[in-house]
Amino acid sequence: MRVALQVTCVNDAMFPDTGKAVVRLLRRLGVDVDFPSAQTCCGQPMVNTGYLDEAVPVVRAFVDAFAGYDAIVTPSGSCAGSARHQHSIVADRSGDPRLAAAVAETAPRTYELSELLVDVLGVTDVGAYFPHRVTYHPTCHSLRMLGVGDRPLRLLENVRGIDLVELPNATECCGFGGTFALKNADTSVAMGGDKARHVQDTGAEVLVAGDNSCLMHIGGMLSRQRAGVRVMHLAEVLAATEDSESKAPGPVVGARAEDLP
C-alpha cells in the first residue's frame, strides 16, 4: 500500500524527529511511505479562527498534494481531525464542486498514526523496545474529534521494556488549544499547570502523546518546574528498538523535515 506522510507544520518547523520516526516505523512494517514535497498546512489555524475563505487555497493544496494515495497518515490528531471534519466545510463554502469531490476522496483516507496502525494495518505490536517509565496524555482532538479511544495505549502496552503508568485525569485538556493559548493565556497556563502536576504524580520519566503541540505546552511547564520529565511523541516510542542509538527522549528543535529518509 502507498501511504503519504502529512508531517504537519509544527513537526516540520520544530520536531522533525517525529516525522522521521513515522517513516522508520512504517517502513519497518513493510509500508511504502512517500513524503509529498508540495504539502503545506492542513488549514486548521485559519478555520479555527474563522478565516474559512482564506483556508480554501490551503485545502486545495492539501488535496492536490495527497491525491492518489491509498492512505494519508499524520502524527497529529489535530491535523487528522482538520482533514476529516473541517475540509468538507471549507470546500462546501467555496462553491467549487471539484474541490468538494477531491475532499470527499482525501478526507476518509486521512488517518492519525495510531488509527493507521491499528485499523488499517491491523497491528498493535510494532516490535518496539523502550525501557522507560511512561505515562500517556490523550490529546483533545484525537480523543474527542477522531475518537481514537485506546488505540495508542494498546500500541504502548505492546512495547517491550516499557513501564506504562496511568495518568490521573488523563482526559482533561492540557490547555494549549492553538490560538486558545494566546487569547486565553492565564487559563491556558492554569490548565497546563494542572496537567504537569498530574504527570509528576505518576513518577514517569517520559510523557507521551500523539500531538507535539500539546507536548510542547506541557513540556514547557515541566521544564520550568525542573520536573525531570521529558516529552516524546508516540511515533518516536514506537519507532524505538534495541538497536536505536539513543533511547533517551528529547525533542530536536530548529531543523526542517524536508529531507525525510
TrEMBL record:
Region annotation (Disordered) ranges: 242-261
InterPro entries reported in the protein's UniProt record: Cys_rich_dom
Superkingdom, taxonomy of origin: Bacteria
Domain Cysteine-rich: 3-80, 134-218
Pfam families from the UniProt entry: CCG
Name listed for the protein in its UniProt record: (Fe-S)-binding protein
